[in-house]
Amino acid sequence: MLTLQVERRVEKGKSFSRRLRINNKVPGVLYGVNKTEILLILDHNSVFNLQKKVEFYKENFFLLVEDEKYKVKVQAIQRHSFKLKLLHMDFLYVS
Description:
Blueprint: E1 3-8, H1 14-22, E2 25-31, E3 38-43, H2 44-50, H3 55-58, E4 61-65, E5 68-79, E6 86-93
Parallel strand pairs: 1-4, 2-6
Antiparallel strand pairs: 1-3, 2-3, 4-5, 5-6
């Protein structure tokens, strides 16, 4: 099963997201029904390489957020219109 290490983020907004993308990071969010929302920072290159695999979209995998493990699936990915860049990722809790 795939495992992806991410960081927790505190700030949000357009300017903070732009600064992340300049530093080769991708903002993301982990959410679910009756669960707390967790804002994330993902490394662009590692996520970009993982998203090329079919299992990334079809199977559940683990997110490691500050030594906490969450079983998730990809809910949505926003991509740049003509560059090979990811702009934002949404993950959904899996029980």
